[in-house]
Amino acid sequence: xxxxxxxxxxxxxxxxxxxxxxxxxxxxxxxxxxxxxxxxxxxxxxxxxxxxxxxxxxxxxxxxxxxxxxxxxxxxxxxxxxxxxxxxxxxxxxxxxxxxxxxxxxxxxxxxxxxxxxxxxxxxxxxxxxxxxxxxxxxxxxxxxxxxxxxxxxxxxxxxxxxxxxxxxxxxxxxxxxxxxxxxxxxxxxxxxxxxxxxxxxxxxxxxxxxxxxxxxxxxxxxxxxxxxxxxxxxxxxxxxxxxxxxxxxxxxxxxxxxxxxxxxxxxxxxxxxxxxxxxxxxxxxxxxxxxxxxxxxxx
Amino acid sequence: xxxxxxxxxxxxxxxxxxxxxxxxxxxxxxxxxxxxxxxxxxxxxxxxxxxxxxxxxxxxxxxxxxxxxxxxxxxxxxxxxxxxxxxxxxxxxxxxxxxxxxxxxxxxxxxxxxxxxxxxxxxxxxxxxxxxxxxxxxxxxxxxxxxxxxxxxxxxxxxxxxxxxxxxxxxxxxxxxxxxxxxxxxxxxxxxxxxxxxxxxxxxxxxxxxxxxxxxxxxxxxxxxxxxxxxxxxxxxxxxxxxxxxxxxxxxxxxxxxxxxxxxxxxxxxxxxxxxxxxxxxxxxxxxxxxxxxxxxxxxxxxxxxxxxxxxxxxxxxxxxxxxxxxxxxxxxxxxxxx
Lengths: 300, 339
Fold this sequence. Notes:
The complex is a heterodimer. By secondary structure, chain A is α/β, with parallel strands linked by helices. Chain A has helices at 40-43, 91-98, 136-145, 165-171, 190-201, 212-224, and strands at residues 16-27, 30-36, 49-52, 65-76, 79-86, 104-111, 124-129, 150-156, 174-179, 186-187, 205-209, 228-232, 248-252, 258-262, 269-271, 280-281, 284-285. Chain A has three domains: 16-111, Beta Barrel (Elongation Factor Tu (Ef-tu), domain 3); 115-232, Nucleotide-binding domain of ferredoxin-NADP reductase (FNR) module (Rossmann fold); 235-300, no CATH class. Chain A is 18% helix and 33% strand. Chain A starts with 15 loop residues before the first strand and ends in a 15-residue tail after the last strand. By secondary structure, chain B is an alpha/beta fold. Chain B has a single domain, classed as Aldolase class I (TIM Barrel), CATH 3.20.20. Chain B is 30% helix and 18% strand. Chain B is built from ten helices and 16 strands. In chain B, strands 3-16-15-10-9-8-7-4 form an eight-stranded parallel sheet. A four-stranded antiparallel sheet of chain B has the order 5-6-14-11, with no helix packed on it. In chain B, strand 8, helix 5 (167-180) and strand 9 form a beta-alpha-beta unit. Chains A and B meet through strand 17 of A and helix 1, strand 6 and helix 9 of B.
C-alpha cells in the first residue's frame, strides 16, 4: 500500500481555465477569436497550442479542438488574452465561430513543445500554408528580438484562404505570397518559390506550419539548401494533453530509433528530417516495420 | 497555479470527500481507498500527463494503460473517430512492455504517492501470467492496490477469439494471474459487454479466483468515412466509449449484481466504468452495484473529471442523506417495488 510520503518537487501545472470570448472577427475564410484566458498567455511560447471544449457542459462532441496560438498578450486590460484562428469545418469549429462575445469556453494550455529558437542571430524563413501561418507572426517577433533576419512565405489555394499578409509585411523583412489560382501573389505553390527565398537570405532555419501534405516538400527543400526544417504538424487529436494516444506519428529519436510519438506532447513541432514521411499514405500513417514495438504488433 | 503544498493522507481523504461530512472511503477487496474514483485504463496514460493538471494521489486509485510483455508501437493512424456523445478508438495497446513499466512508470507513480491499479494483458494466457510475474518483482510493487486483467484481447491460441467472450479462456487467464500474485493483491477481471450473457463470464472469472470485476470495456464498433467510403480508423473496427455507452454499463453492472444477490454467483465487488461524465452518472452505476467508479473518455474533455466526479458524487449522496458512500452501493436493487 502506498504511503503518504511525497518526495518529488512540485510540478508546474497546466492551466485549465474558463476563457471569455472578447472579440470575434471574420478574416477571409477564417475567424479570428480573442479570449481572456488568465494564466495561459503568461506561459505560452510560439508554436504551442490550446485545447478548447466545444458545445458546452452537456455537449455531444466530447473531444477538445486544438488550435495553434496566434498571439498572446499577457497583460491586457481584462487579464492575459489568447488569440486563435479557426476555420469552421465541422460541428465543433462551427460552434466556436458562431459564439457571440462574452461567451465562455473551457481552455487548456499552453500545450505542446513550441518552435525552438536559435541562440545565434541567423537568417530564418517562416513558411505558412493557409491559416497555418497563424503562429508565425509571433515567432517572427521573437526571432527578430534575437537579431535574426526574418523572411516569410505565405501560400494558400486562393486569396481568401491566405492569412496575415498585412501582418507579415510588418513582421518580416521580406514577404513572398503564392496562391494556387494566382488570385494573389505568385501563381503556384510555396515549394516553387521557397528555394529562391532560402538561397537569397542564406537561411539556416526554415519554419513551417500548415497542411501535412506540404511538410515533406518543405523539409526536403530546406535540407537541400543546408537549412534545418522545424515543422509544426496537424495530426488529429482527441485530448491534446498526451493521454489518448491517437495523434501519433513515426519520429526518429536522437538514438536513431523510430517511435510512434504523440504530436501533442512530443510535438507539435518536430525537426522535419526526423519524421518518417514514407509511412504517410492515403490520409493515414502506417507503423514502419523498424519502429520501436512494431514486432509485437503481429499478434494483434 | 496549484501544487507545492504537502498533503497528508489524512487531509486528503477529507479534502477529496467534499465537505468531510460524508465518508467516501471504500474497502475495495481488502484495499482501503480514500474515495471510490479512479481513472480508466487507456484514458490517462501512466500518470505524468494528468499530474500536470492535478495531484493524482488524490484519486482513489490511478489505473494504468494496459501493459503486455513486450513493447508495442500500437497501430497506424487514423486511430480514432468522434461519435455522438463518445468516440471510437483503435490504438492497439501502445506501450513500453512490462519490464520498462515495472522499473519506470510504476516507480514514478509510487514517488508521487499514487495508489495504482495496474492493467495487464497478453496474447496468450501464459503471457498474462508472465506479465504478472514481472510486475510482482517491481521495486514499486507496494504502490499496487490491485491488478486489473484486461481480457478483451484476441487469444492467439484460440483463432483470435477475444478471451472475454469465452468463459473458459477468461477463467484460465484469471487463474494463471492469480497464481503469480500475492494473496493480498486483489485482481479484477475487466469484462466486455459484447457477450450474450455477461453473468456467465463474470461467474467463470470469480470462480477462477478474481477478487472483483471491472465493468465494462468498450463496445466493438465501426465508423465509415463517407467522403472516402472506407473505414474511418486504420484498425477498421474500434472500441466505442463515452456517455453513449453509459446505459450499457449500468445494465451490465445491474445484471451481475442481481446474479450475486440471487445467489447465482459469489458476491464480489464491482468497479463500474463506462460513460461517466458527472457525479450523477457515477451514482447510477453505484446504485446498480458498483463499489468504485472509473472515469475514462470524459477525461479527454475535462482532465480533472475524475476528481470533479468524486466531488459531485459526494454532494449528491449527501443531499440524499447518505452518511457513507458504501451505503449506496447496489441500493437500486432494494427499490424495485417502489416505482
